[in-house]
Specification:
The chain is mainly beta. It has six helices and 44 strands. The longest helix is centred in the middle third of the chain and has 16 residues.
Length: 634
Amino acid sequence: MSVLAYAGATSVTAGDRLRFHLASTDGGPVRGEVTIIDATTDHVLARSRVIGEHWELPVPSDWPSSLYRAVFDDGTPLAGDEPLDHEAWFVVRAARPGAAAPILVSVPFATWQAYNRSGVPGLGLYYAEQPDRAARVAFDRPGGGPPPERWEEGLQRWLRATCRPVEFCSGLDLHGGDELLAHYRLLVINGHDEYWSREQRDSVEGFVRRGGNLAIFAGNTAWWQMRLEDDGRTMVCHRDAVADPMAAIDPERVTVEWSSAPVHRPENTMTGLSFRRGAGAWGEGMKVIREEAYIARFTDHWVFAGTGLADGDKFAQGALGYETDAAELDWSTGVPRTTGRDGTPPSFVVLATADLRHWARYGQGGDAVMGTFRLGAGTVFNAGTINWGSALADPVVDRVTRNVLDRLGAATRPQWEVIGPAADIHALTACEDVLFAVDTEGALICRDTGGQNLPWRTIGAAPTVRALAAAREAAGPLPLEVYAVGGHDRLLRRPPVTRAAPWTPVARLPEGTLALALCDGGVFAVDAADTLHHVYATELPADPEAPAPWRVLGPAGGTIALAAMNGRLYAADGAGRLCTRLPIVGPAAFVPLPGESAPADACRTLAGHAGSLIVTAPGSRIHRRSAVPPPTRG
């Protein structure tokens, strides 16, 4: 094929025009035909004659937002090993972003361009250690389409085949993309999105922190920082701080690995995972991709709903490769959890792992990890592998992908998530990042407050305890400790330590107390008659056996569990309905809390911690949700 072609932009809005630049390898005039194809379906949308150095496409306003390719043909046969320089790839963006779909799919044109002309001195950013590799590459040149492996194609086609309401953008549209992202609930990163500008990363992180969600069905994500120049038509990536003149001007923009000096902004603070802990199999070793699978580690999590998997099961064979991302893990409890030492956020929940240390013989040995975490007001899911989209024929991979898109693409209210396995718990509280509970055998048990499915550990006895509470702030004589409703309606306390410690009597509680909370310098108690009582800590007598001056505040609204968080009382009734009120000493009704009710069979206890509410019941798993609704988007 003698036609050379490229598009004047990586994306265009439906209803606008996109210019293509053409040349002939023999220097003569270009004469031929162009075919416009939706790359996600292979549907042909238009054909036209082309003559000369330029051709302009008027994009119809009714064309769907998608990835397209323009194929130019002058009648010259294409040699088998000839580069596809006669094809130009571009995205059509929605004219009204987010109006028809809550999900935006990014296409990694920067990474495609980085691999364009690999190994050609002065033209390709690859290979990494070649002294004559390019440090600047232009989008104004042929090529720059997907690499031969087409890592993005599987998910793109699956989205269309399943009729998912999604819209597309170029990754370059996310460079200063705050306004675009504001119209969506979920951004999808797909395949191999390795090169990110600072502006792109700032926009995506800001989007998530403000309540948007991010789903990464990819690997080696945001590995290199790059810069855009010449109105976004030139990509700069020295991959060497010594060679980059920006090191003396603005070190934060130096084009090196995001985790390296002088940038020091590890990519996993945004993605949760990093190729630094991942694995890579290149060249002939890429055939190992077909042999590997994930092992499920937390199948009670919503990501695995409907899969039928149990912890320890294998799934997603063929999805791992050729590069994977991971995090440093601690296996000391028998359940993998992130250490956070490598930059992975502490809220990260490990859902699946794969030991790929044997990949050292093919390139880089390491691991693959799949998981999710909270980033500000939003949620990030990361599949941890480049090849996820190629394994969507696997019913588990298909179901997990649907679960992620359904939940993160449509989350408009707080939703419950499982954060721990089932246990026979009838009293619960949180204090100093530790969950304390009492089981039906009268044992005091504890575990971390995080979202990982960690086991409970016995630390003492609490045979008569029927409710627990904790103070967030010291109030008068009451220190920051764990409090309990003990036998004979006694208020007890103990230090918030994860080892054996004695219970100390504090005061007498109202008769039949079944729920307890400490807030605003006082103690609130609900009795079996559904009455809310209060006493200030400073009013408690020195003798724990002396009567305390409890005052009646009024009906408790059917409360069976009580908690306090951030200067507010929270209550749950037997149907899982949640209510709240300020700790006013006087008549004040509990008002319903927006969002999902708790699962009725899991709501016999209630705790508050770091802005989230946690519930469980004997024989139930531990559930958690945010106390506040997510911001309105779109």
